[in-house]
Design brief:
Radius of gyration of chain B: 26 Å
Low-confidence stretches of chain B: 1-11
Helix content of chain B: 40-55%
Shape of chain A: elongated
Distance between the termini of chain B: 23 Å
Structural class of chain B: mainly alpha
Distance between the termini of chain A: 55 Å
Low-confidence stretches of chain A: 153-157
Radius of gyration of chain A: 28 Å
Largest interface: A-B, 63 and 60 residues
Number of helices of chain B: 11
Largest sheet of chain A: none
Order of helices and strands of chain A: HHHHHHHHHHHH
Largest sheet of chain B: 2 strands, antiparallel
Mean pLDDT of chain B: 84
Oligomer: heterodimer
Chain lengths: 325, 241
């Protein structure tokens, strides 16, 4: 068949298809979309024919463009965010954490190990804190948690609007740290190890120092509530980063790039869970931890039960074989 | 676009030296994607960077009037703009951030399908590593040595930055009476002659006759008539219009 006859026969069809494509590209779910997969396959066949028969470049290129655009629309990832999110929170996220328990364990040991270890060291040898933190920062910390001052957190006498400021600050600061800890894992895991140890040491130094000088009550009652979510989240983001690094160090039977791609898909899910945890943590930190009217005992009880809740959630949620729909 | 598979007569020809990236679809069609190089991507990023700076600047002026509430909102906004600007645009605007749109680029998955939430989040989070140790150093190196011009974030997320397809205009074939070729043509030769006719308007007339003169002996015509002969064959191949 000559090219001009071929074009003449199918021109109307192609024009209709391109109108349909425009509709789909505008996310306009109008009529006629049902025939799209069939039309798309027909255009694919036309392209194959045109190539096989040696038609001119213009015809082949324009058919190719149509196919490319159709391919984009037909294989579009349509996700229903609502149900997916619910399924993720109720089952997929804790399952993923358990599935990747080796990385979670390694990251937790690094983070909590350095935290607790250094806190104990600073408590025993108070001068150690100045090796890690400059003196101004230490005195600033002391000012923040001074039991005499009667306020908590980073600023004086917080009003409701102040809570809001801190909420924004915590989200930016903490999620930023989590993202860094994760992303730097791409450097063969070294970045994640560094950020895990570094953050663990800093937090440990502050905790040890404040307890040692007798500000323990204000400090621990402030941090115990949101710490459950915040510290776990940092450890988990470290675990996600270590995953990336491990895919590069020990790719198994795949090429490194492929192993990295497969592992990255899992680790980004972990990061979604981390973001969720940090949102909760920022909320608790801004609105609950900063309340000064409550007795420390109440805070310890609530904080402790939050830790138990997080542990139970990560250990047992989604064990049911039938995923919650 | 000439296929390389049909070159049996001159097997010494090597495949064309270009950056096309072939994706085979489930329908059995090879789709060529054209990955975008470092320079154009850097330009697109600069545009995005400037735009983000502008957005933040304007917002801060507005928020400064709101006092404390503004400060809280401000830090939320810095967070949103610095980490989510790219992700939101890429997923919701068919793989195009404003800078990419300006430069005629888009992000797709390795298999040519549109980018989803997780891949976009991944490639933009890992931007942090591409920035190391300063000014996109690692990203640039990775981009320069990868055949698909991928930075580290693209490798991990399995994404590709490609040129968007531009609308084509139908080329005018030079007028000539349709002719039958003196010898049977292979598919590649047929494509080459059609290509010659379609692109003639872009070439100088001297170059056109020079190219056509190469084919004068096999076509058994004197060199000055080779152009008209080739155009006639192209017309003949195309059929009556």
């Amino acid at each position: 068949m000559k090219q001009s006859l071929f074009e003449h026969r199918h021109m109307a069809e192609w024009e209709q298809f391109s109108l349909l494509l425009q509709k789909l590209e505008r996310n306009d779910n109008a009529t006629g979309v049902d025939s799209f997969p069939g039309d798309y396959r027909r255009i694919c066949q036309h392209l194959a024919l045109a190539r096989e028969r040696g038609y001119s470049s213009f015809l082949i290129d324009s058919l190719q463009q149509q196919v490319l655009r159709g391919h984009q629309q037909l294989y579009r990832h349509r996700s229903r965010l609502g149900p997916q999110l619910l399924g993720f929170i109720l089952a997929d996220f804790p399952r993923l954490v358990r599935q990747q328990w080796r990385f979670v364990l390694a990251a937790s040991l690094m983070f909590f190990g350095s935290l607790i270890g250094f806190a104990v060291l600073v408590y025993l040898f108070p001068d150690l804190v100045y090796n890690l933190l400059p003196a101004e920062q230490v005195s600033e910390m002391q000012g923040m948690y001074d039991p005499e001052a009667g306020h908590l957190g980073r600023s004086a006498q917080r009003a409701a609007s102040e809570d809001w400021v801190m909420f924004g600050y915590y989200i930016m600061h903490n999620i930023g740290i989590a993202f860094q800890t994760f992303a730097s894992g791409l450097l063969f895991g070294l970045g994640s190890v560094f950020f895990l140890l570094f953050n663990g040491l800093i937090i440990g130094a502050v905790a040890g120092h404040l307890t040692q000088i007798g500000y323990g009550q204000t400090f621990w009652s402030f941090v115990i509530g949101h710490g459950a979510f915040e510290l776990t989240a940092i450890a988990l983001s470290g675990a996600a980063g270590l995953q990336l690094g491990w895919a590069l160090i020990a790719p198994g039977r795949q090429p490194r790039a492929e192993a990295l791609r497969l592992m990255a898909r899992k680790s980004v899910l972990l990061i979604c869970g981390v973001m969720l945890f940090l949102l909760i943590a920022a909320f608790i930190e801004a609105y609950w931890s900063s309340m000064t009217t409550l007795a420390p005992l109440t805070k310890y009880l609530v904080g402790g039960s939050l830790w138990v809740l997080v542990a139970l959630y990560l250990l047992f949620a989604g064990r049911d074989r039938h995923a919650p729909e | 676009m000439l296929e390389t598979t049909a070159l049996q007569r001159k097997a010494t020809l090597s495949p064309p030296l270009d950056t096309r990236y072939q994706v085979e679809t489930p329908e059995g069609i090879d789709l060529p994607l054209r990955p975008a190089g470092l320079m154009v991507r850097a330009l697109a990023f600069s545009i995005d960077l400037a735009l983000r700076g502008l957005i933040l600047g304007v917002l801060f002026i507005v928020l400064a009037m709101l006092g404390k509430l503004g400060m809280g909102l401000g830090s939320l906004l810095i967070f949103a703009v610095s980490w989510w600007y790219m992700v939101l645009f890429e997923v919701l605007n068919q793989g195009r951030s404003p800078g990419k749109q300006w430069m005629g680029l888009r992000v797709v998955q390795d298999d040519g399908t549109p980018i989803g939430w997780s891949a976009s989040l991944l490639r933009n989070l890992l931007r942090f590593v591409d920035l190391l140790p300063f000014g996109y150093f690692l990203g640039a190196i990775s981009c320069l040595q990868h055949p698909g011009f991928k930075r580290l974030g693209d490798i991990a997320a399995g994404t590709l930055v490609i040129y968007r397809e531009q609308p084509l205009t139908r080329p005018q074939l030079p007028p000539a009476p349709p002719r039958r070729p003196a010898l049977p043509l292979t598919l590649t030769e047929q494509r080459a002659i059609l290509g010659f006719a379609e692109r003639q308007a872009e070439l100088s007339s001297a170059r056109v006759s020079e190219l056509a003169a190469i084919l004068a002996p096999p076509l058994q015509v004197p060199a000055p008539q080779a152009v008209a002969e080739l155009n006639g064959i192209a017309r003949g191949l195309l059929g009556p219009t």
